[in-house]
Amino acid sequence: NAGVTQTPKFQVLKTGQSMTLQCAQDMNHEYMSWYRQDPGMGLRLIHYSVGAGITDQGEVPNGYNVSRSTTEDFPLRLLSAAPSQTSVYFCASSTGQDGGSPLHFGNGTRLTVT
Amino acid sequence: RKEVEQDPGPFNVPEGATVAFNCTYSNSASQSFFWYRQDCRKEPKLLMSVYSSGNEDGRFTAQLNRASQYISLLIRDSKLSDSATYLCVVNPNTGKLIFGQGTTLQVKP
Fold it and tell me: Stretch B15-25: mean pLDDT, rounded?
């Protein structure tokens, strides 16, 4: 049982480049979410999904897109990378659909935008 | 006022000490609460869930005070391996969990 798998672990982008951070879970969780973590800021919610075909914005959605075509996958797209998006990104999933159950986190993706 | 507030610390304690962290939350409708542990910017890992007045697991005890809107985490007999950042997480029943900044604990020999 792999849990929540994120790829890549590290990425360096130039300003203006686009990329997709992958997230997959094999626990049949309905709820999936993306967070970014910056020093002194804690974890901030970017986007979340309560099931396949349903997504919604979190606290800091600008510059990011998501889709949820299957229960298992929840990719995060950076359309035009900016230095302000340098951060550590965590994908997380949980049972239920209200976001109130404990989250299971992936290992994180460390992104640097130059 | 932030939705979830924690003292960032660091808390420096000797091995064997008892240490307590508090976390305050602003939304009185919040129903469930969690403590996560995070090591060196690795992924957060669930330490305890709190759905009623409190929870205990070995050396760790979490208490919920709904009247004053705070939860606490007590660690007894601290070990070197307890050194980490402890994240307070609140479910305000909006579909989105809210994370505190975290409290850093350093246990010294």
Answer: 96
Segment B54-90, tens digit of pLDDT: 899 999 999 999 999 999 999 999 999 999 999 999 9
Say whether residue A54 is in contact with chain B using an 8 A CB cutoff. Answer: no
Q: How far is B77 from chain A (nearest CA, A)?
A: 26
Token pair listed for A76: 């995060």
Q: Which residues contact A14 (CB under 8 A, 6 or more apart)?
A: A81, A113, A114
Q: What angle do CA A43, B12, B34 make, to 5 degrees?
A: 35
Residues in chain B with CB shorter than 8 Å from the CB of A40 are 8, 101
Instruction: Determine which of B34, B42, B43 to mutate to test the interface with A (most A C-beta atoms within 10 Å).
Output: B43
Q: What is the mean pLDDT of chain A?
A: 93
Q: Is B91–A100 a contact, with Cβ atoms under 8 angstroms apart?
A: yes
The confidence score (pLDDT) of residue A90 equals 97
